[in-house]
């Protein structure tokens, strides 16, 4: 199970996708009259408040009898300014849904799991609860640990729970809680570092690190309790090193509970510039030193997944050292022979998660493919692959039996819902509709795919959304959304974050998304192509894409275009500001202004070292300067809104602060929106509302656009 506390480069994973029995991946087949929205008087735009009230559905957790599933529903509670999450039960055959836990604003019940067919468990405030399936039942606490736990799993065979907890070196849960209290009584607040990774993502490194534990669950007719915990990582070498230590990323427990596979980055002085992440296999029976399965591979491993019989382990493996966007390959380890092999090794796509069929003959791989997150099946014996879904985006894949699975599906104009898929005929059936009332009569524009000739003569993919109230006889401003990474890709999903294209379409903009060179899901060569060329091929693709769109779609007003991007997208916004004046305004979220200062300030050095170079070396310095937006600061003339979080250690606040300061010093209109409590993303609902308010107000004002609803 992937740990949610530290989002990774692949993350992410927003829930994306949702149709019933068939899906249409493009709106290009629609007639002109169907696409004109000016007759749709009953529709209302997707406004900021409606968007932030929407429900998000979690991945299903299937019952032991395979007939039912638990799932979480989350939403932002405006009145208490906190998220709310409650659990429900769905009958897979009938689709009947029963709410199980309270839906009280600000209460979060997460991590659903099954103890048996009649009892389920969940986490609340870091403690483990159990509850009968009866909707009238009340929860009972099973384990109230001295430190919060997460990522809990249960295996009935050994009556064992597994979980993750952050602890001090060689300390139990109790000892760690005591050390934490002692730490809080210190008379100074200094933190001292001699090795790299003083900070990562949004936290300064401390002695507490997440470790994997197992503990017996002791059940009686009247009471349940958890016995003494065992740290499965305690036997690793250098476990007590206070400077770096081991930190778990992913873990999985076998169906029988006899083994745990976990993914860790070994403590070393090169942790900030090495992408070596390993898989270890530990026994829950004898607690001896875990077996190192990836000692001879120097890339990143992730997503360990046991077969249904527990005899094999699959995981995703990158092989290129120092490259975080290398292709993920599927590796299989057999317990009996202790041998590892790769399956479908020549596949040019990069899976992001794996799950086994119930008969262990097939692995389902959730894989980005042409701007969509699709489910593929891989025959374990032959490596033969089959595309099971063709449009939108899938997530949370959970096999039911040999012939069917559950998953979460969404698309640009469908919010995420649980679906059932027959793997033989590939026909999905929609089981939930968690936003039926909230999205009733709300305008959601479908994505219209297009392809054009980009840099190097390669075909480049993009899509367009028409605005609210669209009338082909009128002209509209255009918003270009630029994804981050750069080795990620925009996907046709329903994002609950800051870059949902329909939020811009509902504000009155033709909204355009382009997966430029460097994007994933179009083959590894396409992803690799922008090494040393951050400001080259992607810029060419975006400019040619704009030419294509404005030529094909006559309703786009070329004089009222804006560009917005986050992370690498923010870098590209700064690059655009130094190279073109075709935009009325720009928005840069957590974007890099200087490739040189950005190198020295980031947390993960392997990324800029591989993609650009080291600034203290002559060749690296030349490449960094060649791709440096700051070098063209004298050309910046477009009004720009900068947004940044103080806790962003991937791209520090000084990058946006510097670009904003430069524009204001030159009397060019610019605005800085600063969030002292946010990181590389906007995580809090109230802040997200403010983010959209500032951004949509900025782009409508500079394009002289009247939004279909009042933004402020």
Any key phrases for this structure?
712 residues, alpha+beta, 40 strands, globular, 8-stranded mixed β-sheet, disordered N terminus
The tally of helices reads 12
* Unreliable residue runs: 2-34
What is the mean pLDDT? 92
Widest sheet: strand ordering = 33-34-36-35-37-38-39-40
Classification by helices and strands: alpha+beta
Helix percent band: 10-25%
* Number of strand elements: 40
Q: Mind telling me the C-alpha Rg?
A: 25 Å
Protein architecture, described:
With 712 residues, the protein is an alpha+beta fold. It is built from 12 helices and 40 strands. An 8-stranded mixed beta sheet has the order 33-34-36-35-37-38-39-40, sandwiched between helices. Strands 1, 2, 3, 4 and 5 form a 5-stranded antiparallel beta sheet that branches. The longest helix is centred in the last third of the chain and has 18 residues, at 685-702. It is globular. The model is unreliable at 2-34 (pLDDT under 50).
Question: Quick gist of this model?
Answer:
This protein is of the alpha+beta class and about 700 residues long.
Write the layout of secondary structure elements.
Elements: H1 32-35, H2 48-53, E1 56-57, E2 61-62, E3 68-77, E4 82-91, E5 97-99, E6 110-116, E7 119-124, E8 127-132, E9 140-143, E10 149-155, E11 160-167, H3 173-184, E12 199-200, E13 203-204, E14 209-219, E15 224-226, E16 230-231, E17 247-253, E18 259-265, E19 278-283, E20 291-292, E21 301-306, E22 312-317, E23 329-334, E24 339-343, E25 353-356, E26 362-369, E27 372-379, E28 385-387, E29 393-399, E30 404-411, E31 414-422, E32 428-430, E33 448-453, E34 459-465, E35 476-482, H4 501-505, E36 510-515, H5 524-528, H6 537-552, E37 556-566, H7 568-577, E38 585-589, H8 595-601, H9 606-611, H10 618-626, E39 640-645, H11 653-665, E40 670-675, H12 685-702
Parallel strand pairs: 35-36, 35-37, 37-38, 38-39, 39-40
Antiparallel strand pairs: 1-3, 2-3, 3-4, 4-5, 6-7, 7-8, 8-9, 10-11, 11-14, 12-13, 14-15, 14-16, 17-18, 18-19, 19-20, 21-22, 22-23, 23-24, 25-26, 26-27, 27-28, 29-30, 30-31, 31-32, 33-34, 34-36
């Amino acid at each position: 199970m992937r740990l949610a506390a530290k989002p990774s480069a692949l993350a992410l994973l927003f829930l994306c996708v949702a149709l019933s029995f068939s899906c249409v991946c493009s709106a290009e087949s629609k007639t002109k009259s169907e696409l004109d929205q000016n007759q749709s008087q009953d529709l209302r735009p997707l406004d900021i408040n409606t968007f932030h009230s929407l429900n998000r559905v979690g991945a299903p957790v299937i019952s032991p009898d395979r007939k039912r599933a638990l799932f979480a529903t989350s939403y932002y509670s405006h009145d208490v300014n906190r998220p709310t999450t409650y659990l429900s039960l769905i009958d897979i055959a009938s689709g009947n849904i029963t709410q199980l836990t309270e839906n009280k604003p600000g209460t979060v019940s997460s991590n659903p799991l099954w103890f048996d067919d009649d009892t389920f468990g969940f986490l609340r405030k870091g403690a483990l609860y159990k509850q009968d399936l009866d909707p009238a039942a009340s929860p009972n606490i099973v384990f109230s640990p001295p430190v919060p736990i997460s990522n809990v799993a249960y295996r009935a065979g050994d009556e064992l729970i597994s979980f993750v907890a952050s602890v001090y070196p060689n300390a139990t849960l109790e000892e760690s809680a005591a050390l934490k209290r002692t730490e809080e009584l210190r008379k100074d607040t200094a933190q001292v570092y001699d090795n790299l990774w003083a900070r990562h993502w949004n936290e300064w490194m401390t002695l507490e690190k997440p470790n994997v534990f197992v503990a017996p669950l002791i059940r009686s007719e009247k009471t349940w309790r958890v016995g003494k915990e065992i740290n499965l990582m305690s036997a690793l070498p250098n476990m007590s090193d206070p400077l770096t230590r081991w930190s778990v990323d992913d873990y999985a427990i076998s169906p029988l509970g006899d083994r745990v596979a976990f993914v860790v980055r070994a403590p070393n002085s090169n942790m900030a510039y090495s992408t070596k992440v390993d898989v270890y296999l530990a026994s829950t029976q004898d607690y001896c030193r875990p077996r190192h399965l990836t000692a001879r591979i120097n890339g990143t491993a992730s997503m360990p997944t046991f077969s249904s019989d527990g005899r094999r382990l699959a995981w995703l493996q990158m092989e290129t050292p120092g490259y975080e966007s290398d292709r993920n390959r599927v590796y299989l380890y057999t317990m009996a022979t202790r041998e590892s092999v790769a399956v479908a090794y020549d596949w040019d796509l990069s899976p992001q998660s794996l799950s086994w069929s119930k008969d262990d003959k097939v692995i389902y791989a959730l894989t980005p493919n042409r701007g969509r997150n699709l489910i593929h099946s891989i025959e374990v014996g032959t490596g033969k692959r089959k595309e099971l879904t063709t449009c939108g985006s899938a997530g949370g894949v959970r096999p039911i039996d040999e012939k069917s699975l559950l998953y979460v599906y969404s698309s640009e104009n469908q919010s995420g819902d649980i679906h059932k898929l027959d793997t033989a005929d590939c026909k999905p059936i929609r089981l939930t509709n968690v936003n039926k009332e909230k999205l009733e009569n709300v305008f959601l524009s479908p994505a219209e795919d297009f392809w054009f000739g980009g840099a190097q003569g390669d075909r480049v993919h993009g899509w367009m959304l028409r605005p609210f109230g669209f009338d082909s006889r009128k002209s509209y401003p255009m918003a270009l959304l630029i994804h981050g990474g750069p080795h990620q890709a925009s996907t046709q999903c329903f994002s609950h974050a800051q870059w949902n294209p329909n939020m811009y379409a509902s504000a009155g903009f033709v909204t355009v998304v382009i997966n430029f060179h460097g994007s994933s899901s179009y083959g590894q060569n396409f992803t690799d192509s922008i090494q040393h060329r951050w400001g080259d091929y992607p810029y060419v693709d975006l400019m040619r894409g704009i030419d294509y769109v404005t030529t094909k779609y006559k309703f786009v007003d070329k004089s009222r275009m804006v560009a917005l991007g986050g992370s690498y997208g923010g870098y590209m916004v700064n690059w655009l500001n130094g190279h073109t004046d075709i935009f009325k305004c720009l928005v840069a979220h957590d974007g890099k202004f200087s490739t040189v200062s950005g190198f020295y300030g980031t947390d993960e050095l392997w990324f800029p070292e591989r993609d650009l170079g080291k600034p203290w070396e002559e060749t690296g310095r030349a490449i960094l300067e060649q791709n440096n937006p700051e070098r063209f600061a004298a050309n910046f003339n477009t009004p720009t809104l900068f947004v940044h979080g103080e806790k962003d250690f991937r791209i520090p606040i000084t990058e946006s602060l510097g670009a904003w300061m430069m524009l204001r010093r030159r009397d060019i209109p610019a605005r800085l929106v600063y969030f002292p409590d946010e990181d590389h993303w906007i995580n809090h609902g109230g802040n997200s509302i403010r983010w959209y308010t500032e951004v949509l107000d900025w782009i409508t004002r500079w394009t002289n656009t009247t939004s279909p609803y009042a933004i402020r």
